[in-house]
Amino acid sequence: MTVGILALQGDFREHEEMLRRIGAPTLQVRLPKHLDRVERLIIPGGESTTIGKLLAMYGLIEPLRVRVREGMPIWGTCAGAILMAQRIADGRADQPSLRLMAVTARRNAFGSQLESFEIDLPVEALGGEPLRMVFIRAPVLEDLGDDVTPLARLEDGRVVAARQANMLATCFHPELTSDERMHRYFLEM
Known about the structure:
- 25% of the residues lie in helices and 29% in strands.
- The chain contains six helices and twelve strands.
- The longest helix has 10 residues, at 12-21.
- Helix 1 (12-21) links the parallel strand 1 and strand 2.
- The strands form three sheets. The protein has a seven-stranded mixed beta sheet with strand order 2-1-3-4-12-11-10. A three-stranded mixed beta sheet has the order 5-6-9.
- The protein is globular.
């Protein structure tokens, strides 16, 4: 099972290192033809407006939508979660995105990079001890559709991880920790 990692901008190398550490073959995806060679895809954190523009420039938006509708598992972390959302709050009106998951992603929900933080929270789907979460200019997920399952919430109730069928969105960066559980969860989807 080859895991594609969208490698247009952002922290794709960190995902690649994590996946290699747990024995999953990877392929950096930059063009539509690369999608034919992967069975699942991670959209990493980075700058959502820039990644969206590059998705459009390289002709990846519609091929990605088709593959996900056909059942390919996809996981967006931080900017990737924003790009997967059907609606983007506090984004640019002309921001290209995939509009796949029945959620609203509120960009920069915690403020600027200076308000970045780490916290340990339980993720019911992972069981066991809480997961270390790194939030950097992170979004939150709002207005979840009926078939979207929240996987993790902050103490104030805001959703920071959710799943809808073959789609996973996390507002934090599990690739920046040593905990492999989120990546293993994605591989099992």
